[in-house]
Write a structure and sequence with these properties.
By secondary structure, this protein is mainly alpha-helical. It has helices at about 1-30, 35-50, 55-60, 65-75, 80-90, 120-125, 140-145, 150-160, and strands spanning about 90, 95-100. It holds the Pfam family CxxCxxCC.
Length: about 160
């Protein structure tokens, strides 16, 4: 996995132009069965991929925390939301709550998440490859292929499956 993660940013850069063109076409003319196709590609990839061998998303990026996430996680820790914010979060340039630092404070050395059952919505949905109306998150997906080997593989399969 270390070798895959080492090469992933470069592979993503090499595919960037191709992916950008593909997503532009996808946005203009999404296939009627896109949601179904994406669900199939996502499920097939995650039958082969074990996130616990990677956790690169948790090591290199941080999720956005919604107010509902903050309330839920603070309750889990028996803290006030303001205490949770002060201890773990900051406000970014887009006025969103994000982690103060990465890797994620809740990621263990074994790649397990200590707040898995109450983790943020963004973490639960990552890498967002099974999301409905997938064509609407092209920019996010372009970023995720450089972070997540599974997202990279799903996009590569997408390009083989969806023909324009």
């Amino acid at each position: 996995m270390d070798e895959i993660l080492k090469d992933l940013p470069q592979k993503a850069r090499e595919k960037h132009s191709e992916n950008k063109k593909f997503f532009a076409k996808l946005k203009k003319r999404p296939p009627k069965d896109l949601d179904y196709t994406m669900q199939e590609l996502h499920e097939a990839e995650f039958e082969r991929t074990d996130c616990l061998t990677c956790a690169n998303c948790c090591k290199t990026t941080g999720p956005l925390f919604t107010n509902a996430d903050i309330e839920r996680i603070a309750k889990h820790f028996r803290m006030k939301p303001s205490q949770f914010i002060d201890g773990f979060l900051k406000v970014d340039e887009e006025n969103d709550y994000v982690l103060q630092s990465v890797p994620c404070a809740f990621l263990g050395a074994d790649n397990y998440c200590s707040i898995y059952d109450v983790r943020p919505k963004a973490c639960r949905e990552f890498p967002h490859t099974d999301r409905k109306k997938f064509q609407q998150i092209a920019n996010l997906t372009m970023k995720n292929v450089a972070i997540c080997p599974a997202a990279f593989n799903i996009v590569e399969e997408m390009k083989k499956t969806i023909k324009f």
